[in-house]
Design a protein that fits this description.
The complex is a heterodimer of chains A (254) and B (362).
Chain A (H helix, E strand, L loop, with lengths): L3 H6 L4 E10 L2 E11 L4 E6 L5 H9 L6 E6 L2 E2 L5 H7 L1 E4 L11 H8 L6 H14 L1 H5 L10 H13 L5 E5 L7 H16 L3 E6 L2 H7 L2 E6 L2 E7 H6 L1 H7 L4 H6 L1
Parallel strand pairs in A: 3-8, 3-9, 6-7, 7-8
Antiparallel strand pairs in A: 1-2, 1-4, 4-5, 9-10
Helix pairs in contact in A: 4-7
Chain B lengths: L1 H6 L10 H22 L1 H26 L8 H14 E2 L4 E2 L2 H20 L7 H21 L20 E2 L2 E2 L4 E3 L2 E3 L1 H24 L2 H11 L1 H6 L4 H27 L9 H14 L4 H30 L6 H19 L20
Classes of the chains: A alpha/beta (254), B mainly alpha (362).
Keywords (chain A): Amino-acid transport, ATP-binding, Cell membrane, Membrane, Nucleotide-binding, Transport
Protein name (chain A): ATP-binding cassette domain-containing protein
Family (chain A): Belongs to the ABC transporter superfamily.
């Protein structure tokens, strides 16, 4: 597992400068900077409506931006459509999993390799995914819509991995899942970063996200208001009161 | 009626061994017009039309069933194909091109029309897409209706008549064929020509469904955001669905013009689009077999009514209380309501394993 130092020495695989996104007349993201290196787990936390999901969708090219740069491996990719960004190695696991409910688990995984033609490589990666997600292998021929929430999330992650990404954008993988299942998912995320992929994680569960992340950004009203290592933010009193539900009375009294 | 009655029993009897099922279907498809002929020529005509509707339903199913794009103006492509044939193979402009030029041209024009419809509607989904496609279908019909001045192109509401029949290798399908003293009805000739088209279409669509393209459509239908996230060029794939779906409409339209010998805007009303959509909903959206069954059933229904409803009412009440056309709409609506309650996924659902209700196709 790469140490903090070896990671920070690399040039970032993903760099975002002054990113702005608007929906209609509403500026949802008001100019944010982010960096992500290979093998790094970085989380983006914040309240509902802070612009986290919008940021992730914009990075994946599903939502257009109206300002700033998105650099992937040093190249500007802000104008590329989503399918070309995926080809470069930027994969999104959308909020609410976004699996294809009418297809089987096997078919879902195969769609993940949609952009690839190297049959052998796909088969090898399929085996890797099975090793990482044994539950998925057990359910291969089941229609994905009939899986439990945790299993669906696993399928969504497995599907994204089959595009062989360098950067994985994960949108709230813990949503609506039981704590034990969430723990499993986070173990999987951890193994993914150990393989050298960069993971940018959007989470509501700030406590968990900060515990496992090397670094984190706190978003508020479309801006990044705080950033730092996971541990530093976990100890930050402002973060504790706003996102970890502690000392709320104290804050109100102050 | 021979064709429908054998497919009416619901899936229990469909669990027939595949080895028996396939030859049975082939035999039925080949023998149906002969049985119909014994009942009267008009029944063969009904079967011919049923096959044209099968082609239409297969094409619309590509767009609605596979790619999940609700198209309420599909009949416009049928119109484009029919008018292409009427323009290029009739005395109207004095052009008489052979079918192997006219039919592909009609298909190509329909595909272009499909792209013309698809391009501006790429970002629309569901209800909004349905409204725009509905408008598109009407625009085409209204154009056909009014393009008789200042320059007469379509001959307006009068339509175009004396259209050239389908002539394959010197064989004019509109004339009865004299073969070793046997008279083979023109209607039979058309039936087998249409059947060949339908078989070709089914083979093509089956292959398409299991291809990368088919999988991309299924992905878009289930979740467009996720489809983008796995690297599908959703714009391209939607345009392809519109274009390919329209192609089937165009071919069917061309054959219709040749078979009927006459086209007018009346044949391409909104009601026709809805009927074709009803066929695939009733049969089982996304499932080819279901779509074929749906198309045959709904073509046969009004004919059955025409034959039996009037005499029955005359016998019972001494007069016709309900016009067959009214009765047809009534029964169609009733059938749809019952279907939605009992078998929401159609007579032959796309996937029986799928237990969930569909989120989007309402």
């Amino acid at each position: 597992m790469p140490t903090e130092n070896s990671v920070s020495n690399q040039s970032p695989i993903l760099e975002v400068r002054g990113l702005k996104v608007a929906y209609g007349g509403i500026q949802a993201v008001k100019g944010i900077d982010l960096t992500l290196r290979k093998g790094e787990l970085v989380s983006l936390i914040g309240a509902n409506g802070a612009g986290k999901t919008t940021t992730l969708n914009t990075l994946a090219g599903v939502v257009p931006h109206n300002g700033g740069d998105i650099l992937y491996a040093g190249q500007e990719i802000g104008k590329l459509p989503s399918h070309l960004r995926l080809r470069k190695g930027l994969a999104l696991v959308p909020e609410g999993r976004g699996i294809f409910t009418r297809l089987t688990v096997a078919e879902n995984l195969q769609t993940g390799a949609y952009t690839r033609r190297d049959t052998d490589g796909i088969a090898a990666d399929m085996e890797k995914v099975f090793a990482l997600l044994p539950r998925v292998k057990e359910r291969l021929n089941q229609v994905a819509g009939t899986l439990s929430g945790g299993e669906q999330q696993m399928v969504a992650i497995g599907r994204a991995l089959l595009s062989r990404p360098q950067v994985l954008l994960l949108d709230e993988p813990s949503m609506g899942l039981a704590p034990l299942v969430v723990e499993k998912i986070f173990e999987v995320i951890h193994s993914i970063t150990r393989e050298g992929m960069g993971v940018l994680l959007v989470e509501q569960n700030a406590n968990l996200a900060l515990e496992v992340s090397e670094r984190a950004y706190v978003m508020e009203g479309g801006r990044v208001t705080l950033e730092g290592t996971g541990k530093a933010l976990l100890d930050d009193p402002k973060v504790r009161s706003a996102y970890l539900g502690e000392d709320i009375e104290e804050l109100a009294a102050a | 009626m021979t064709t429908t009655s054998s497919t009416l029993p619901l899936p229990a009897s469909f669990a027939l061994d595949r080895r028996i099922q396939r030859p049975l279907v082939i035999l039925l498809a080949l023998a149906a017009p002969l049985v119909a002929l014994a009942m009267g020529k008009s029944w063969v005509r009904v079967l011919d039309f049923a096959l044209l509707y099968v082609l239409l339903a297969i094409g619309l199913n590509l767009v609605v069933g596979f790619a999940g794009l609700l198209d309420l103006g599909y009949i416009a492509f049928y119109a484009v194909g029919a008018y292409t044939w009427a323009f290029l193979a009739s005395p109207h402009f004095g052009i008489h091109l052979p079918f192997w030029i006219v039919l592909p041209l009609g298909a190509a024009f329909a595909a272009l029309a499909g792209i013309a419809l698809g391009f501006p509607t790429l970002r629309l989904r569901g209800d909004y897409l349905a409204i725009v496609t509905l408008g598109f279908g009407e625009i085409i019909r209204i154009f056909m209706n009014n393009l008789n001045q200042p320059i007469n192109i379509t001959n307006g509401p009068q339509g175009i008549d004396s259209i050239d029949p389908l002539t394959i290798a010197g064989l004019d399908l509109s004339r009865d064929l004299d073969l070793f003293g046997f008279q083979i009805s023109s209607l039979l000739l058309y039936y087998y020509a249409f059947l060949a088209c339908v078989v070709f279409a089914i083979i093509l669509v089956r292959r398409l469904q299991i291809s990368r393209i088919g999988r991309a459509w299924a992905a878009i239908r289930d979740d467009e955001l996720a489809a983008k996230a796995i690297g599908i060029d959703t714009r391209m794939m939607k345009l392809l669905a519109f274009a390919l779906g329209a192609t089937f409409g165009g071919v069917s339209g061309g054959l219709f013009a040749a078979f009927q010998g006459f086209v007018s805007p009346e044949s391409f009303s909104l009601m026709e689009s809805i009927v074709v959509l009803t066929m695939i909903v009733l049969g089982g959206m996304g499932n080819l077999a279901g779509v074929v069954v749906g198309a045959i059933m709904l073509t046969a229904l009004p004919e059955l009514l025409r034959h039996f409803a009037v005499p029955m009412q005359m016998a019972l009440f001494g007069k016709t209380l309900l016009d067959p056309e009214v009765l047809r709409m009534l029964l169609l609506s009733l059938a749809m309501i019952v279907m939605m309650l009992v078998r929401p996924a159609g007579l032959l659902p796309a996937r029986t394993r799928y237990a969930h209700r569909d989120r989007r196709n309402a």
